[in-house]
3-phosphoshikimate 1-carboxyvinyltransferase
Amino acid sequence: MSAPLWPAPTATEPVRATVSLPGSKSVTNRALLLAALADGPGTVRLALRSRDADLMADALRALGATMTPSNESASSVDWAITPGPVTGGARIDVGLAGTVMRFVPPMAALGDGEVFFDGDPHARKRPMGTILGALRALGADVDNDALPFTVRGPLTGGEVTLDASGSSQFLSGLLLTAARFEKGVTVRHAGPPIPSQPHIQMTVQMLREHGVRVDDSEPDVWRVEPGPIGARDFTVEPDLSNAAPFLCAAMVTGGTVTIPGWPAATTQPGDQLRRLLADMGASVERTPGGLAVSGTGRVTGIEADLRDVAELTPTIAALAALADSPSRISGVAHIRGHETDRLAALVAEINGLGGDASETDDGLEIRPRPLHGGVFHSYDDHRMATAGAVLGLAVPGVQVENIATTGKTLPEFATMWADMLEGPR
Ligand SMILES: O=C(O)C1=C[C@@H](OP(=O)(O)O)[C@@H](O)[C@H](O)C1
Ligand SMILES: C=C(OP(=O)(O)O)C(=O)O
């Protein structure tokens, strides 16, 4: 059966809206894991509720944590979390969530029982060998180099060298649990540059906020001391990467979108939207109501190395396809291993609407030209789906396949998009 098509709304006037976003996926899934590994009961407030966050909560429960929700809404929840001894015998569904498939196996290796991992069909194609090899080197038994696999601990920890150029999550995954390894861990990266550096800073900062000693003073080396992970009452920031399609709507329609609660300082890569969108012609302002982005309806092409903010690529590419000059995006070869091969998918779908995009070794070249309507395939990728929505604002007749896939990180996307277009009531 083919997936349903969502007629992407075309904007008839400049959008003027305030859009409140639920919690960050990346912060939520780190905070939940750290709470489940902590030295006592803790709380994670304003946690995201979405497919990826629910899969993380289920995984932690399966490994022995007690997770009690309160103040639940469709996309937000407060969790009270009581850690337990890590139990074996669990079967973990990782879905298509990079944070679950890379962050949970090191925790599973704390126990001495077998833990089985599997996920969506495409999850079996996402790179896993680097982190599974590292777990083996640190003392765990792991029976495969990709999903599905079984992990059996306990591991002792110690020193390991790996190549994290394929995903920062290999490194983050090891660091998040490492304080609970008998010897802690020293991880050395050897290889081309690691992408998504802000996500590594997020890992290090959140570990420190939970009382873990992390030494990252030497380039490409991280040392986590063995010791307790402190229980906390932790509040999650809004998801700034999920702000991207809404802020693009302000630019494409010549309107203004305000995001309340934009943090003054943050490790989220989405914060770099302030710079990227300004480079593409937006005016960006912190106001008492939040971060306000205004556009003129004209978008300028961009030359940008997006290595640090790789997850923003689909949205920036959609915006670039609507620009009045060419764009060149570099530094993102590794997003061929994201939810789908994002470089191939963006080229196919932009060109399917009459555009002119091509792949380079490590990115995309996009030469804008008039687009026409058609089906925009989403490949079970939330950010492909929202990229299609951005194009649909300016191009009548765009139909996005399976808009529900946005539930990976933003379950209410379609309603929020409609509300934004309707404007203040
Ligand atoms: O640690 C994280 O929360 C993430 C790290 C990044 O992964 P890559 O390093 O594979 O790009 C990012 O793209 C992903 O959306 C979330
Ligand atoms: C790459 C992404 O997700 P994941 O956490 O599954 O890697 C993303 O959200 O853009």
